[in-house]
Design a protein that fits this description.
- By secondary structure, the protein is of the alpha+beta class.
- The protein has one domain: Alpha-Beta Complex (tRNA-splicing ligase RtcB).
- The chain contains 11 helices and 17 strands.
- It has helices spanning 30-40, 75-78, 102-112, 128-137, 139-149, 158-161, 191-211, 231-265, 344-350, 353-359, 382-387, and strands at 8-10, 19-21, 49-56, 63-69, 72-73, 85-94, 171-176, 181-188, 226-227, 271-279, 281-288, 291-298, 300-302, 308-311, 319-324, 333-335, 393-406.
- A 7-stranded antiparallel β-sheet has the order 10-6-8-7-17-15-14.
- The protein is globular and about 65 Å long.
- The protein starts with 7 loop residues before the first strand and ends with a strand.
- The relative contact order is 0.19.
């Protein structure tokens, strides 16, 4: 079924490749627009670039963009948090089942799931359940095969970081929907090993670039690429597939540990059949318009007809469980969140602790200066972002968080 589209054609200077943007009512910074123009100018990008309403400047490629390529792949467009994404599950608990003191629940989850970057964000002793999950997944053997060809990709963090949150915009939340049902929602990716994979192959792409004779202008070295048929292209596809699978396993392991803590501290409950686990930083081969394309979603979620997805807001704002409408103009995609409106540095300079505490007064979460750059004011209005993509998804559930855990 054809879906009427609500996009605008953005100016694509120096390129014949269109840029379709779902940006009505949301800000699009000039730097991000120029970055999109640089991407669209590459001869292997197309038939068009799709821009989601949470769009903002990124490294290499714009966050909130869908970049299809023919016969080439851009590692920096995928980024270094390969497979980063969301997971959510609905429980049979109700709001009335939650304790008055949510700080104790938050504390128990933080003790069970390591949070933050650095050694403190790793497992000191890998739980047996996570070790078993990794052993059964075959991820260790696949990584060893990759490492044999690329020894700089070390496996030393894989066990210690499976089932851990990380820092930045990663989070674990306890939420309530419009019927006061309790949900668990979390956001994380492939952690340190995925970062190592991404960083290594971005560097290799730049080295390849130095040897290439191009018949076109490459405006940004972060758009360095591999060409299909090259050994490094196949190696990157293998490695990025591993990182995406590891990221999904990481979310599954974290979710299991969060639910384990809830089972210990809350009334008996079951899991509802409604659960979602979706990437929003990844690349995969897809068929669009009868053509085989490599589709990179840099801060975008697959939204095929009937497919479930998650669009989180920010600390203190609503999040959404959505169902895709299968809009072909967006390459069957939607936004991955609200999208930053301030850089982290700008947010730390502009937002006061008082403002942050007021904006998150209804949430059990960190109220200190260490999370100022994640405060709601650092992000676009999630209401405006959702209004700009009504032709991409329908909202199934609106979630409001009561507990938010940040690294």
């Amino acid at each position: 079924m054809d879906i009427p589209s609500n996009y605008d054609l953005l100016h694509a200077e120096g390129s014949t490749t269109p840029i379709k943007g779902w940006v009505r009512g949301v800000p699009l910074e000039d730097q991000a627009h120029r970055q999109l123009q640089n991407i669209a100018a590459l001869p292997f990008v197309g038939p068009w670039v799709a821009v989601m309403p949470d769009v903002h400047l990124g490294k290499g490629a714009t966050v909130g963009s869908v970049v299809p390529t023919r016969g080439a792949i851009i590692p920096a467009a995928v980024g270094v948090d390969i497979g980063c994404g969301m997971a959510a599950v609905r429980t049979t608990l109700r709001a009335s089942d939650l304790p008055d003191n949510l700080a104790q629940l938050r504390g128990s989850i933080e003790r069970s799931v390591p949070v933050g970057n650095g050694p403190g964000g790793n497992h000191r002793r890998v739980p047996d359940s996570i070790g078993t999950r990794l052993a059964q997944s075959g991820l260790a053997e696949r990584l060893e095969a990759i490492r044999c060809k690329h020894p700089r990709i070390r496996p030393d963090k894989v066990d210690a970081q499976a089932g851990t949150l990380g820092g930045g915009n990663h989070f674990i939340e306890i939420c309530l929907d419009e019927s006061d049902a309790v949900w668990v929602m979390l956001h994380s990716g492939s952690r340190g090993t995925g970062n190592l994979v991404g960083t290594y192959f971005i560097e290799q792409a730049r080295r390849q670039l130095e040897k290439r004779v191009l018949g076109f202008h490459l405006p940004d070295k972060d758009l360095a690429f591999f060409i299909e048929g090259e050994p490094m292209f196949a190696d990157y596809v293998e490695a990025v597939s591993w990182a995406q699978d590891y990221a999904r396993t990481n979310r599954e392991a974290m979710m299991a540990r969060v639910l384990h803590e809830m089972h210990h501290r809350l009334p008996k409950f079951r899991l509802d059949r409604l659960a979602v686990n979706c990437h929003h930083n990844y690349v995969q081969r897809e068929q669009h318009g009868g053509e085989s394309l490599l589709v990179t979603r840099k801060g975008a979620v697959s939204a095929r007809d009937g497919e479930l997805g998650i669009i989180p807001g920010s600390m203190g704002t609503c999040s959404y469980i959505v169902r895709g409408k299968g809009n072909a103009d967006s390459f069957h995609s939607c936004s991955h969140g609200a999208g930053r409106v301030m850089s982290r540095t700008a947010a730390r300079q502009a937002i006061t602790l008082k403002q942050h505490r007021e904006a998150t007064a209804h949430v059990e979460c960190r109220k200190d200066a260490g999370v100022i750059d994640e405060s709601p004011a650092a992000y676009k209005s999630i209401d405006a972002v959702m209004a700009a993509q009504t032709d991409l998804v329908e909202v199934l559930h609106t979630l409001r968080q009561v507990v938010c855990i940040k690294g």
